[in-house]
Amino acid sequence: MILKQTKEYILQNKMIQPGSCVIAALSGGADSVCMLLLLKKLSRELDFTLEAVHVEHGIRGEESRKDAEFAMNLCKKLDITCHMHPVDVPVYAKRTGLGLEEAARILRYAAFEEEAGKYKADGQTVSVAVAHHQEDNAETVIFQMLRGSGVKGLTGIHPVSGKNSVTYIRPLLFASRADIEAYLKE
Questions:
Q1: Does the global pTM surpass 0.90?
Q2: CB contact at 8 A, 160 and 168
């Protein structure tokens, strides 16, 4: 069921162009693994190339390195190129005065932009897929309300957005965490 819904959501929101490249942000968590598996199944039908990028944040030591190994092994099993980006979030956070979460987000998106930039330089259409889902969207709206956002901020996460000349797509934004977990169990 979620496979069909994902395809419809991608088409409805014009997320992926035929012949383009999609780079899946793969953390190794349930959401990103589900997204990668679904995109892999849809890649031939929707005619796009699929690759992945994993950012190893340097925060959780051995556990973090195991996540990176899992991401690489999963991609190898699925015959998907995986680009590894090790970053040192604690050093960056200290140098910039940011919290770890914000520093990690900045470095993660910099890695996404670096990978996407390689394809843009060749003139290829590329987008970065991130695994935001319904609960992430609801959380964003609440956070924006608490910050005193205007009406624009209350719209939540958009299915397609651009930042620093990179197109970000969120093919699971329609799905609940329960949908994602059910698909993975299946």
A1: no
A2: yes
